[in-house]
Amino acid sequence: MIDQFGRSITYLRISVTDKCNLRCRYCMPEDGVCKKDHVDMLTEDEIIRAVEAAAQLGITKLRITGGEPLVKKNIVSICRRAAAVEGIREVCLTTNGLLLPQLAKPLKEAGVKRLNLSLDTLDPQKYAYITRIGALDDFRAGLDAAFEAGFEKIKINSVLIGGFNDDEIEAMAALTMEYPLDMRFIELMPMYDSGDFGADAYLPYSRVLEKLPQAVAVPKDGGVAKLYRLPGAKGNIGLISPISAHFCGECNRLRLTADGKLKPCLHSGDEYNIKGLDFEGMKQAMQDAIWNKPQWHGDLDALHRSQAGRNMNQIGG
Ligand code: SAM
């Protein structure tokens, strides 16, 4: 599927739930999610039907996300069935990692190839603060379980927050010296009502490079991150810059929310319903969403909040 700006859309990110076992301050409100009726959410069969429709339209890569995808009871079954759909070459998953001790092996066996784990600090107290309810030791146990399970690739995503973790850039980058993982820094995005961070919190990716003068640029791996490597490292440093240097021109993504809305752009309020539709209806909705994908996401900064109309836990990141 090519959109009207010539971009080929091959990547579908599916949020399987908006519930989460953390409450990250930039992602969701403290009191959790606005409770939706169970009947309003996509069923497992509908998710798989959507994957089949998307695959027929040229989607080859899936990312399963949330909320926290691992709190979904049937997550292993969803991943197994999605990975088996003809045309799907790769199923990846984004998680906070806390439930990986129980689920890493079953997910690997189900066909999940790559994992992204979210971690914003190496300090236990700061971890408890930013997640509101999390314990860093549980993250570490999850990371260990992910390595033991033998995924093809493990990446850590860290949201860069001025005044919170910019003093940890070197320490987090040093994880690539210790482990065969990519460490990615993502610019904080001003979502709907996801915390009131001041203007100083919105740091450009260039701040990471200032702290890592020894990092050398390396070729991109097909994703949107600019890649660098520390001398002697086992993995790359990735820089994702939706704010200071947007990459909308190379965006190949379509998103599906847990309540069955296709979002052609993370920061647009445009949504196309597929809940309750049959296979052909889903395909048509996907074609409409892709054709109408906005050219770019518009200004985003402390003063210009995202127009998504949802917090990140209700979209999937
Ligand atoms: N619960 C899973 C996790 O923690 O990875 C998956 C869902 S979470 C919404 C996906 C990613 O979005 C996480 O890496 C998170 O840090 C990122 N994210 C959430 N809100 C964000 C924001 N306002 N700006 C930048 N990244 C954000």
Show the helix and strand layout.
Layout: E1 11-15, H1 44-56, E2 61-65, H2 75-83, E3 90-95, H3 100-110, E4 112-118, H4 124-131, H5 136-149, E5 153-160, H6 169-173, H7 175-178, E6 182-187, H8 206-211, E7 216-218, E8 226-229, E9 237-240, E10 253-256, E11 261-263, E12 272-273, H9 279-291
Parallel strand pairs: 1-2, 1-10, 2-3, 3-4, 4-5, 5-6, 6-9
Antiparallel strand pairs: 7-8, 8-9, 10-11, 11-12
The chain binds S-adenosylmethionine.
Polypeptide structure, described:
The protein is α/β, with parallel strands linked by helices and 317 residues long. It has helices at residues 44-56, 75-83, 100-110, 124-131, 136-149, 169-173, 175-178, 206-211, 279-291; strands at 11-15, 61-65, 90-95, 112-118, 153-160, 182-187, 216-218, 226-229, 237-240, 253-256, 261-263, 272-273. Helix 1 runs parallel beside helix 2 (75-83). The chain is globular and about 50 Å long. S-adenosylmethionine binds next to strand 3 and strand 5. The site of S-adenosylmethionine has 21 residues, from strand 3 and strand 5.
